[in-house]
Specification:
Layout: E1 2-3, E2 20-21, H1 23-30, H2 34-42, E3 48-50, E4 56-59, H3 60-66, H4 77-80, H5 84-89, H6 113-136, H7 143-161, H8 166-190, H9 195-221, H10 239-246
Parallel strand pairs: 1-3
Antiparallel strand pairs: 2-4, 3-4
Helix pairs in contact: 1-2, 6-7, 7-8, 7-9, 8-9
Length: 267
């Protein structure tokens, strides 16, 4: 919408003239190029006043009204589309190929259908607890993250009881971590979170996942008594020691495996 040059309320020299700024300042205020603002003006999307000399002038107040106000807090993840059901679907595709050689059959291949179902349910519960924690924010009660940590520790314990090494337990958690981070990053980008909101969200995700990784390792290490001669400060028993201990467990007949492959039974 172009304002008429004869309108005394916007004529240079009028008491409100200080509200009017040039094309360069106006484009900087909106964060767009001068060419974009010029096109918007010609399309009538931005009110503009053209001086007798042909210079464009823009109302600072009108431009400020076009700038979205800063949100006090990020919208809930569920409103952004990050439901537990949607994120769980991200785990149904093929897993990325591992970057190191396999040393034996995947531990997933040795699981029964019942055991696979238990792993999947634990994973769904873990996703749900994480999302609830992220929406509560750092000032919220920690019960959801505590619940997620207990689930991660249980995962580590079950992996040890299946005769899996510490490396395999960590690898299985990383197999859970990568799709979770990827899906949240995609949602943040698609739903237009600003830089501040996206950075805070991903920092909170990384912090929570770091705690769950530690819980997984602790759960694995605590599944069996420390082997004789283990070092102080809670040294994790070796894969051989864990397999020897697993031989006294009903699941101890399972052989030690290495690579993770397609199977979908991770967390």
């Amino acid at each position: 919408m172009r304002a008429a040059a004869s309108d005394p309320s916007i004529r240079p020299g009028h008491p409100s003239a200080s509200d009017w700024i040039g094309l360069g300042d106006a484009s900087t205020l909106l964060g767009v190029s001068a060419a974009t603002l010029r096109r918007w003006s010609d399309e009538g999307r931005v009110p503009v006043f053209t001086t007798p000399g042909g210079h464009r002038r823009y109302s600072r107040r009108a431009l400020a009204a076009m700038i979205p106000s800063v949100r006090r807090e990020r919208p809930p993840l569920a409103r952004l589309g990050a439901s537990a059901e949607r994120i769980v679907r991200a785990y149904r595709g093929p897993l990325p190929r591992r970057r190191w050689p396999a040393t034996g059959p995947s531990w997933v291949e040795r699981l029964s259908e019942t055991q696979k179902a238990e792993f999947r349910q634990r994973g769904r519960d873990l996703v749900d607890a994480l999302l609830l924690h992220l929406d509560r924010g750092p000032a919220g009660a920690p019960e959801h993250l505590d619940r997620a940590a207990r689930l991660a520790a249980e995962h580590g314990r079950v992996m040890a009881e299946l005769g899996c090494s510490t490396v395999e337990a960590v690898e299985s958690f990383l197999q859970f971590r990568a799709p979770f981070l990827t899906e949240l990053t995609r949602i943040a980008r698609r739903r237009g979170l600003d830089t501040r909101e996206a950075t805070a969200l991903l920092a909170a995700v990384e912090s929570a996942l770091d705690r769950l990784l530690v819980a997984t390792i602790e759960g694995h290490a605590g599944a069996f008594p420390a082997a004789p001669g283990a070092a102080a400060f809670g040294e994790v028993a070796s894969g051989a020691q864990l397999r020897a201990a697993a031989g006294r467990h009903p699941a101890g007949g399972l052989r030690h495996g290495g690579a993770r492959r397609r199977g979908g039974a991770s967390l």
